[in-house]
Design brief:
The protein is mainly α and 393 residues long. It has 17 helices and seven strands.
């Protein structure tokens, strides 16, 4: 049976680190909504329902985060965020108001494409050398267009155009039914029973889903921004609270939860290998590769009644993905159950993992363990150095 006290201590410690080191996307100096934030850069929550053009501030911010979640999946997050910010600012200066009037992006496709191309070149000059060094690659391979495509139009129409078209289609459908709303995208987002179901539907919904333009991790990141980081939601019950969505699973999660021993407490190396979460000798420098996304949906046997009660509560009343007590425990949802009845949620946990993963627990054989806030709890540092030495994400 896993040592659940140890697991809980670790998860609460990471969430505490996250509460001290929040990681919001820095959007307060974006031209279209600079005035939504106060002098200290905090979003003015009480004014979210104020009208800006045809829509509320909440709607405009949600549209932006929806777009950002799609774009954020590319190879160099710092470069991508700069590209999104610079293109949006420059288009707004030309009165191409893509969040207020999504159709502008297509009507003025010449401007849109020019801005993407020009800013991509500028960012490449700024970032390519650093990126190449960090990723053991060459600077001329730097490319933010995703899927390694070189053609701007495919990138612009698919990755920018699809998330911008969703609120436009919602608006058109309302008009067709003689209805109006100042928050069509927010209404759609909140039409689901929980933020977890929303994160599935923004991908899978037949009419409004983003399909392959968004992955599970990005959909959960959007849920985190909407529910926790910017607190945009209008619903304040459990299934729209800070435990109502899964942790966005990225490589930082893989490294931190593996090296600290969390994953091995709940399962074992054989299972991790059979699930292809650990791929032998397939990582950088011939090390074993941790592919954490393959963990989602895998079942674990925990054998502790109290934990199972909490897990059932999470599955039925927070994530709302199950109507009755589920037979199995899905490993990626164990952290929600451990955080239940604590002062923390998935938002703080994710911020903590990002902070630790990018500042201490980096993807090489010499992470900064001596300075890491988890050093007293970490199995890799204290007992099993091979968890650090032999595995990469
Ligand atoms: S102590 Fe070291 S291995 Fe453990 S989480 Fe911190 S940086 Fe990573």
């Amino acid at each position: 049976m896993p040592n659940l006290d140890k697991c809980k201590k670790l998860i609460l410690e990471i969430a505490e680190v996250g509460s001290q080191n929040p990681n919001p996307p820095l959007i307060n100096d974006l031209f279209p909504f600079r005035h939504y934030f106060d002098d200290k850069g905090n979003l003015m929550q009480k004014k979210l329902s104020e009208i800006d053009g045809l829509w509320t501030r909440r709607e405009i911010l949600t549209r932006f985060l929806f777009l950002q979640a799609v774009l954020d999946q590319g190879p160099d997050i710092e470069g991508i965020r700069k590209l999104l910010k610079d293109v949006t600012n420059n288009l707004y200066k030309k009165e191409v108001r893509i969040l207020h009037r999504p159709l502008d992006f297509f009507k003025e496709v010449g401007f849109s494409v020019d801005e993407i191309l020009q800013n991509h070149e500028t960012i490449k000059k700024l970032r390519a050398e650093d990126w190449a060094r960090e990723n053991k690659s060459t600077a001329n391979r730097y490319n933010l267009f995703m899927d390694n495509a070189k053609q701007v139009l495919g990138y612009a129409v698919y990755r920018w155009g699809v998330p911008l078209a969703v609120p436009y289609l919602l608006e058109k459908d309302l008009q067709k039914n003689n209805q109006t709303s100042t928050e069509p995208l927010v209404d759609f987002i909140e039409s689901f029973e929980s933020s977890e179901i929303m994160s599935e539907q923004i991908k899978d919904n037949v009419r409004y889903g983003l399909g392959k333009a968004i992955g599970d991790k990005a959909a959960h990141l959007f849920a985190k921004w909407f529910v926790y980081t910017f607190n945009l939601g209008r619903k304040n019950y459990n299934s729209w609270g800070n435990l109502s969505y899964e942790l966005p699973f990225d490589s930082n999660v893989g490294r931190v939860l593996f090296r600290t021993g969390y994953l091995l407490e709940l399962t074992n190396l054989n299972d991790l290998e059979s699930w292809q979460v650990i791929q032998k000798n397939a990582g950088k420098g011939g090390k074993h590769y941790i592919r954490v996304t393959n963990l989602r949906g895998q079942k674990v046997d925990i054998g502790d009644e109290n934990f199972k009660k909490n897990y059932d509560d999470i599955a039925m009343n927070f994530l709302h993905t199950k109507k009755r007590s589920p037979k199995n425990i899905e490993i990626q949802q164990t952290v929600n159950a451990l955080l239940l009845n604590s002062q923390y949620g998935i938002g703080q946990l994710d911020d903590g993992i990002i902070h630790i993963g990018t500042n201490f627990c980096r993807n090489h054989d010499a992470p900064l363990c001596k300075n890491c806030p988890l050093k007293n709890l970490c199995e890799g540092y204290n007992n099993k150095n091979e968890l650090i030495d032999e595995y990469r994400t």
